Amino acid sequence: MVAPAALLLREPMLLSGAGAGWSVLVPEREPWARTEEPASVGRVVGGWATALAVGAPWPVLGLWWDAAGGGLLLASGFRRTVGFGWRADGTPVGVAGAGGGVPHGEAVEGEPLVLALVGRLGLDPVLDGELLEALRAPDPEADAGARLRGLLAVLTRVGVALPAGLEPGFSAGALREALLGRPGTRRVEWSGWREAVQAELDVAGGGRFAEWMPWSGGPRAVGLAAAQIAVGAPVLARGVRARAGRGRGAAVAVGALLVAHGVVGVGYGVMRRGRGG
């Protein structure tokens, strides 16, 4: 179910399983390093996570790291992206998502940051909440890699299990090599709208999210598609008007993805009504 949405990112990806009900995507290129003014890894990953979450009714976790630090972003539907971030030495910092930063300790949508993460992922508010709070506390012995490994240990409670070789701190090349040698890994690469739509139709046989998918043409799918257009259009417009660099490419890509996915969904709804469905 993840592959059709990942196709619309228009970035070559490696896709593999990552535990019960979870998949992992690793980019085959490094889009954050392809411009004169490179975007941060966290911002690019945040844009992808936001687009994938709005394009499908499931939460998306964006795990990232570079020489300056690392972090995790959680995107779910149209809600504000939340997450944790640390400098390389493990000092907690704000998280840069697709729509801006989440300062350390700030409440999100009226609730504390940890409670927002716990609630959206279905974690235990007491036991897991305490572990997450500890990851935000000062600890001179824990660098960003250790913080991320601790976070992944908490996420095992909801079934997340990264394949062997996908470890915080590893290089992008090492991550790709780890997945390429793993049975069940597949490449997801944009090759045109016809193939993207066909990929969606290939998985249209059912599942608990089927009524939300564009091909269903039902009221929930059309409502989601209309919301995607409403959110994506202003993001795309801001990206087009922005100066080169400083996240412009990410904003254009996310906005275009949401608008395109929404138009496809509305189109399916119109065709279904035309057939009397």
Count of beta strands: 9
Q: Summarize the amount of helix as a percent range.
A: 40-55%
**Structural class category:** alpha+beta
| Outline | globular
Biggest pleated-sheet summary: 4 strands, antiparallel
What is the spatial order of strands in the main beta sheet?
Answer: 3-4-5-6
Mean pLDDT: 75
List the helices and strands in order.
HEEHEEEEEEHHHHEHHH
- The total number of structural domains is 2
Cα radius of gyration in angstroms: 19 Å
Which spans of ≥5 residues are poorly predicted at pLDDT below 50? Answer: 96-110, 201-209
Strand content: 5-15%
Distance from first to last alpha carbon = 24 Å
Number of helices: 9
Structural write-up:
This protein is of the alpha+beta class. It folds into two domains: 179 residues, no CATH class; 71 residues. It has nine helices and nine strands. The strands form three sheets. Strands 3-4-5-6 form a four-stranded antiparallel β-sheet, with helices on both faces. Strand 4 and strand 5 form a beta hairpin. The longest helix has 27 residues. It starts with a helix and ends with a helix.
